[in-house]
């Protein structure tokens, strides 16, 4: 499988497309609605800003119609979205990406496709009924119901969940006792935020371990798609759904070999450590910066307060720009031979911007000065103003509603692709949260304006 040239510190092996080892299918055989490309696709990412080639999205569907004022808190939405409008907004987001040459993969379609494989079906049905609320009898009757569904219907049910009165042949004490409106299989409205359940580092993918109960099952879906879909044949998975908590929204690829990991409400220090060990062992990073963030909903992930918009620049919530710190974690000899036991060197804490620039080998990591008054800054941070998705250096998608942040980005030379998000935003996630980059080019050397020796005037609007 062809890979990005710069995914690893040692030379990358590039195999050739053949059969996918697990199902014996030729990689080029059309599968379901999507034809596999005739050439093996590029996969992987070493930065946040290299030209985006392929992205994984999830168009919100029936799972959002499950949200009510009684369950929205538990399901991590701040309200009850108008679903048709949320879908229109999402379609426009996907279109904005397609218009700029980005290939959009849809998670629900990939899921329906892998569900024609018996092993993938069995795995995902088992994950859906693996719930102590149900009891053995209801688990059995739910398994039978799900087993009888065609791939498309099963995909829909795994995402939208299964309500008590939708289950044909439901049996068991738990079934009798449950309320008619209860879910036998709870819905996954946060699947919309594809950023969190998997993250590519170099040419490997970390299927994450999500912290909130409402999201646990999401990574069983991404794990099955990466394990079984011919599109991803040969891709190594470097993390796992049952390990220490780690969410993709906390993982920022600052530069090739340099990964920042936020630790707070979602990712634990143990998750950051495990990821660091695995990245070092697989030579996918030489430095991991561990960045504590406030454990509260407004700052649930590192990407809610800062995202990269250029190879050497970030947009950052001004209230934290000067107080954010990082611990610098390295493997003593640059690599760790054993992912689980290797000794790690930990230094710090240091101001985040200082530690990041040092790890990236640049003079300065610029912060776009959004010049916001504290109240506007707080409002726009809450509405994901700092949660941008870079399509290339200095070209980023952002919610249109954050007018002041977007104006500041433009003043600093960042082209902003504005999208509507009034309904999508009720899940508290912006363009970066709603996207998982599967392939990015390495940012061209010319895009890094302040690498080591380069000195020059500081561009306006940066500090
Ligand atoms: N990468 C992100 N910031 N994702 C936002 C996820 C929002 C989602 N409702 C949650 O609470 O988990």
Protein architecture, described:
With about 475 residues, the chain is of the alpha/beta class. The protein contains twelve helices and 18 strands. The protein has helices at about 85-100, 105-115, 120-130, 135-145, 150-160, 175, 220-230, 270-280, 320, 350-360, 375-380, 405-410, and strands spanning about 50-55, 105, 160-165, 185, 200, 205, 250-255, 260-265, 285-290, 305-310, 315, 325-330, 345-350, 365-370, 390, 395-400, 415-420, 435-440. A five-stranded mixed β-sheet has the order 7-8-9-12-13. Helix 1 links the parallel strand 1 (about 50-55) and strand 2 (about 105). Bound molecules: arginine (ARG). Arginine binds near residues 190, 195, 215, 304 and 429.
Small molecules held by this entry: arginine
Question: Strand sequence of the main sheet, in spatial order?
Answer: 7-8-9-12-13
Low-pLDDT segments, ≥5 res: 1-7, 9-37, 445-463
Annotated CATH architecture of one domain:
5-stranded Propeller
> Average pLDDT, to the nearest integer?
87
Name the CATH class of one domain.
Alpha Beta
CATH superfamily of one domain: L-arginine/glycine Amidinotransferase, Chain A
End-to-end separation in angstroms reads 42 Å
Pfam families: ADI (PF02274)
Protein name: Arginine deiminase
Pathway: Amino-acid degradation; L-arginine degradation via ADI pathway; carbamoyl phosphate from L-arginine: step 1/2
Catalytic activity: L-arginine + H2O = L-citrulline + NH4(+)
């Amino acid at each position: 499988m062809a890979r990005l040239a710069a995914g690893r510190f040692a030379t990358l092996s590039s195999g050739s497309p053949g059969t996918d080892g697990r199902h014996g299918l030729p990689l080029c055989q059309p599968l379901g609605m999507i034809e596999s490309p005739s050439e093996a696709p590029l996969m992987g990412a070493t930065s946040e800003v290299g030209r985006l080639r392929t992205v994984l999205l999830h168009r919100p569907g029936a799972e959002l119609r499950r949200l009510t004022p009684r369950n929205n808190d538990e399901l991590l939405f701040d309200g009850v979205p108008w679903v048709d409008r949320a879908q229109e907004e999402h379609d426009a987001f996907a279109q904005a990406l397609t218009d700029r040459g980005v290939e959009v993969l849809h998670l629900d379609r990939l899921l329906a496709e892998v569900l024609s494989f018996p092993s993938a079906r069995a795995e995902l049905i088992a994950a859906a009924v693996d719930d102590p609320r149900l009891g053995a009898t209801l688990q059995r009757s739910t398994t039978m119901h799900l087993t009888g569904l065609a791939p498309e219907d099963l995909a829909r049910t795994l995402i939208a969940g299964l309500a008590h009165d939708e289950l044909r042949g439901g049996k068991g004490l738990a079934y009798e006792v449950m309320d008619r409106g209860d879910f036998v299989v709870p819905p996954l409205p946060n699947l919309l935020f594809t950023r969190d359940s998997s993250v590519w580092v170099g040419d490997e993918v970390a299927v994450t371990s999500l912290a909130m109960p409402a999201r646990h099952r999401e990574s069983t879906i991404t794990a099955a798609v990466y394990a079984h879909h011919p599109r991803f044949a040969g891709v190594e998975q470097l993390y796992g759904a049952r390990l220490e908590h780690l969410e993709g929204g906390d993982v920022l690829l600052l530069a090739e070999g340099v990964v920042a990991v936020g630790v707070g409400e979602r990712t634990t220090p143990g998750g950051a450590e495990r990821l660091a060990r695995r990245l070092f062992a697989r030579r996918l990073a030489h430095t991991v910066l561990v960045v504590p963030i406030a454990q509260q909903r407004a700052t649930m992930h590192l990407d809610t307060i800062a995202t990269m918009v250029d190879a050497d620049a970030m947009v950052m919530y001004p209230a934290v720009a000067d107080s954010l710190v990082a611990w610098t974690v390295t493997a003593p000899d640059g690599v760790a031979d054993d992912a689980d036991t290797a000794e790690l060197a930990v230094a710090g804490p240091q101001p985040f911007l200082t530690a990041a620039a040092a790890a990236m080998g640049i003079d300065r990591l610029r912060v776009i000065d959004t010049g916001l008054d504290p109240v506007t800054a707080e409002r726009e941070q809450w509405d994901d103003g700092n949660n941008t998705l870079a399509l290339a250096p200095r070209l980023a998608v952002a919610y249109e509603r954050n007018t002041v942040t977007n104006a500041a980005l433009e003043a600093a030379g960042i082209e902003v692709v504005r999208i509507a998000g009034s309904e999508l935003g009720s899940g508290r996630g912006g363009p970066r949260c709603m996207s998982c980059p599967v392939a990015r080019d390495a940012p061209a050397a010319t895009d890094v304006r302040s690498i080591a020796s380069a000195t020059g005037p500081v561009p306006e609007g940066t500090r």
